Amino acid sequence: MIRKTLCRILFFTFAWMQMAHATEVRVVSQTVGTDEMLLAVAAPEQIAALSHLARDPVFSGISQEAAGYPSIGMGDAETILCYRPTLVLFSDYSRAELVEQVRRAGVQVIIFDRYQTLEDSYANLRQLADALGDDAARQRAETVIEQSQSRVTELQRRLKGVKPVRVIAPSTYGVIAGADTTFQDICDQAGAENIAVTMGKLTGHAAPPSEAMLKWPVEVLVIGGASLDAAIEPFLKLPPYAFMEAVHQRRVALIDVWVLGCVSHLRIHAYEQLARQLHPDRFQKD
User: How many structural domains compose the chain?
Assistant: First the structure.
């Protein structure tokens, strides 16, 4: 109760506090994707707090690094403002009313809304670095981008000439990933053909055409998880997947859950993990 009262006081006096700390950069990140970007480009002293998922290795690619920073929990406006931010990072799936509350308090906000490709991630890194307003942040962003580009080039070299493996990313949520999704981007980079696109003509995360899917020549299912048995189990009784040969034969490319949903530059781990699963012969000399 005392903490909540203090937070309310901070909420209503925030404009004055911003003037008192005009030269200080304090960034709060509200989503795991912006957490990953922030740790890549900001100096440690510029990071005020990270999202509630930052420390969770199931969802975050920076869980160990995030352990050294405060967490905003579920992140209502009062909690966010308790960290005296000069900048708050949101995504277009953040609650609109939360964004508006923070903005009304006089805090600069950035709402990231481009995730489909690695090029989008590069643009987001540069936008964040510019918002931080110092050359060191811009240099860190360019270094991350150069390193990522180098890894993509190496992956393309290894996969040159491979026959794409026909895949889908099954889901228990009643949708399947089609075109214009991060999964399609992963397929494009990992030597995979997303037949939800080439045969199903699906766009975005769409309801699967259950009967038609039974005719799709699925070679491999791409599922996030640490255990094959645990990953495949939900689909053994879930139509239409329960009737698919690939499910019964457990033909699965198992990758980390967090990389399958990654919207930051760290998605390159998904490219590499899936490519190794689908084309192991191209990595035998490692």
Answer: 2
The CATH number of whichever domain residue 59 belongs to comes to 3.40.50.1980
Q: Which residues pair with 206 in a beta bridge?
A: 176
Dihedral (Cα; 144, 145, 148, 150), 10-degree rounding: -110
Calpha distance 75→60 (Å, rounded): 17
- Each residue's pLDDT, cut to its tens digit, for the chain (286 residues) gives 555 555 554 555 444 444 444 568 999 999 999 999 999 999 999 999 999 999 999 999 999 999 999 999 888 999 999 999 999 999 999 999 999 999 999 999 999 999 889 999 999 999 999 999 999 999 999 999 999 999 999 999 999 999 999 999 999 999 999 999 999 999 999 999 999 999 999 999 999 998 899 999 999 999 999 999 999 999 999 999 999 999 999 999 999 999 998 999 999 999 999 999 999 999 987 6
pTM here is 0.88
Which structural domain range is residue 228 located in?
A: 165-283
d(CA 27, CA 276): 36
**246 inside domain:** yes
